[in-house]
Specification:
- This protein has helices at residues 17-23, 61-67, 81-95, 189-195, 207-213; strands at 34-44, 49-59, 102-106, 109-110, 118-124, 127-141, 147-151, 158-162, 168-171, 177-182, 218-224.
- The chain is an alpha+beta fold.
- The chain has one domain (17-224).
- A hairpin with a 2-residue loop joins strand 5 (118-124) and strand 6 (127-141).
- Helix 1 (17-23) packs parallel to helix 3.
- It is globular.
- It starts with 16 loop residues before the first helix and ends with a strand.
Length: 225
């Protein structure tokens, strides 16, 4: 199958990388459908303002095998950055509809992002990794303001787990800034079995499940004195 930039017809038929798991492609048989190992940086400018979030997302092997079909254009058995760049573009464009699975509040005010202009995919050891920078719509000075960033999918279609080493990082942060982190929970066996019964083409969970899964966020609390 060759990827193109037209999206998914009616949530079925042709599929596009991240659009595939967002719009309901059957990569797996139960919720969650895709597993992502994530690392996130909070990036500051020279005016001590938070300006962007840099994400590194490594996808599971099953999803990767599904996503890279037909991408080796020159048939050399390798996937170059050039061959992967159209797919990276589709990925980033698809994520906009889902707020990039990134939620940021500063002094209890929800922050908005603009579309990434810097992004690429890497393929190694049978896994795709997406790198992208998510700029804030308006840079914000965070000194003295409670800042909370969350990385997760409230519908649990995608399971985000942060890297064990340096899951959240501060880049060029002003002196006096520190992080407190909390990581996503997992369903108990009974709930996991119930989630497993939800068809792959159901993107939004029933309300009785959302009550719990919407709390399974990976969270970094930034405190700058």
């Amino acid at each position: 199958m060759r990827w193109n930039s037209r999206g998914i017809a009616g949530g079925r038929a042709a599929v596009l990388a991240i659009s595939a798991w967002i719009a309901g492609a059957s990569v797996a048989q139960s919720h969650p459908h895709v597993f992502v190992e994530a690392r996130s940086e909070m990036v500051f400018d020279d005016q001590a303002r938070l300006v962007s979030i840099r994400h590194v997302w490594r996808f599971d092997a099953a999803f990767t095998a599904f996503a890279v079909q037909g991408l080796d254009a020159n048939g050399d058995g390798q996937l170059s950055h050039e061959e992967l760049q159209p797919l990276a573009k589709v990925n980033v464009e698809s994520l906009k509809e889902y707020d990039f699975f990134t939620f940021l509040t500063i002094a209890r005010k929800e922050q908005k992002f603009v579309e990434p202009s810097e992004y690429w995919l890497d393929f190694s050891d049978g896994r795709l990794t997406l790198f992208y920078t998510l700029p804030l719509k308006t840079p914000v000075a965070v000194s003295g303001k409670k800042t909370i960033m969350q990385v997760y999918d409230p519908s649990y279609f995608v399971d985000f787990s942060m890297t064990k080493t340096d899951p959240f990082v501060l880049t060029d942060a002003p002196a006096g800034c520190g992080l407190t982190t909390h990581f996503a929970g997992k369903p108990d066996p009974q709930l996991a079995a119930e989630l497993a019964q939800i068809p792959a083409d159901v993107r939004d969970l029933p309300p009785q499940f959302m009550t719990e899964t919407s709390t399974w966020s990976n969270e970094a609390i930034l405190d700058c004195q």
